[in-house]
Amino acid sequence: MTAPHLTPDLLLHAYAMGVFPMSEGRDDPEVFWVDPEQRGILPLDGFHISRRLARRLNAQTFNISFNSDFNAVVAHCADRKETWINDTIADLYAQLHHMGHAHSIEIRQDGTLVGGVYGVALGRAFFGESMFSTRTDASKIALAYLTDRLRICGFTLFDTQFITAHLATLGAIEISRATYRKALQNALKIDASFDANAAVPPPQEVLQRNAQTS
Question: Which domain holds residue 104?
């Protein structure tokens, strides 16, 4: 179903109803709503950090930040041969970011942005939108820090929309539309704060908390 003229408030309302926007391509001006029968989620107590990823985290070859360059993360996510992020969608997420509803995690190496993830926060639900990586494991590290932040801040639902082989290796699962909507409604009853101004924890803390909960 084609979406009407979109505003940030309408987009938040759509998320609260369990649907999200997509485009057929970067140069396609049309936006449509998506409501999958099977929904991908990443259980916050089930994120899987492999031994290799743990070593990569401990090596501290990357610098991690929260909300330091949201628009750049979105631009990198859209900069691929096939993308669902057109200019309308990118602009809407930029507006949600300024409203405090959209957040990003940036991964830098030697000062260069090499990975990241962004999404929308509403209540205790976080809707992961897209991620990118130009260095090995950079997007996995972004997700490790994102799930850790969500867990610390009291979120209960991490919606990945769809499930991919990449996400499945990190612990993502599929649930039915009905199960998802029940979890979403529960998550919307109470607000949580992403707290992007909080200090970025060292990797040892992220690994320790993950070991305690997964």
Answer: 36-213
